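Hi X.,

You mentioned you wanted examples for the new student's onboarding notes, showing what a folding record looks like when two proteins sit in one file. Here is a clean example. The first protein comes first, with its sequence line followed by its structure tokens.
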Amino acid sequence: MRTKGLVASFVLVSLGVIAAGCGAGGSSPVMTTIAEKKVGENLAVAISNPEGKLKNGEQEIGLKFTDGSGNPVEISAASLNFNMPAMGSMAEMNDPATLNTTSTPGEFAGKVKLQMAGEWIAQISYEGEETGKTTMEVTAY
């Protein structure tokens, strides 16, 4: 009787581990917009991450390009750098994000490690259906 209980427990725990592994590896985290800016007449760019706010340290980051109706815009390459200008004796800081394309046109996912909390300038460059550069002020907590 005790053996059947141990086997049943083992099977249930194993199934739970397998289910958790399948869920974690197969999907991307839900991204929440941190900052958004309209660029030109028919292009908007948004920075996002799972928490909806930047933080000091390493984190996932998303960059999304859409038209005036919220539809994806085909952007084939993009870069995102976080810049904090020099202040007093503190030197200028630049923390570039590593971005990868996703299966959705105009959406990029990656990681960034911000050196400290504070006011940053997000510097964005992009090429594709539209090409250009823009900046946004963002705060890391």
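Then the second protein repeats the pattern, sequence line and then tokens:
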Amino acid sequence: MSKKDANNDSVAPAKQAEGNEDTVEMEISKEDVAELEQRLGEAETKAQENWDKAVRAQAELENVRRRAERDLENAHKFALEKFFLELLPVKDSLEMGLEAAKGENADLAKLIEGTDLTHKMLEDLMIKFGVCGVHPLDEPFNPELHQAMTLLESPDKAPNTVVAVMQKGYTLNDRLIRPAMVVVSKQAENSASDGSEKA
């Protein structure tokens, strides 16, 4: 065996070893690729599931928004429904009273009694819904609840006292909806001038 043949023989196993390493590396790469493909498939599945959940959540949110808008619209439309259902018996009573008054045998005492009962029904209904009357006779004038229509000298009343109520006022749940129109007492001019002369 020549030196050249010996060199070729030593190169051949080296090339063979290199070829084996390439094969091993390719096998590892194929396993890695397979694992990565599996992970990618799982990630895509999870991404699709999350996308479906997001779409469903968005649709549900849109449904809730539409339902809330519809409920609010109905609340505005029918807010007074309960009040008017309670008010209808008062209207019915007034209509019956009018029919009775138009009859040939109208009894004034019965008409007055029926009107009183109808008035009581209306007052009870107003109280039930938080409406309270403001009738401040003989009370100190309160500009937050009363509207002074005129001043009147009143020697037997303290100045700034309500001496007459021309029209009752009303509050709704403690909020003024109509002030009471009142006549307010003022100090008599004679007593004021007497006081200044005495001073």
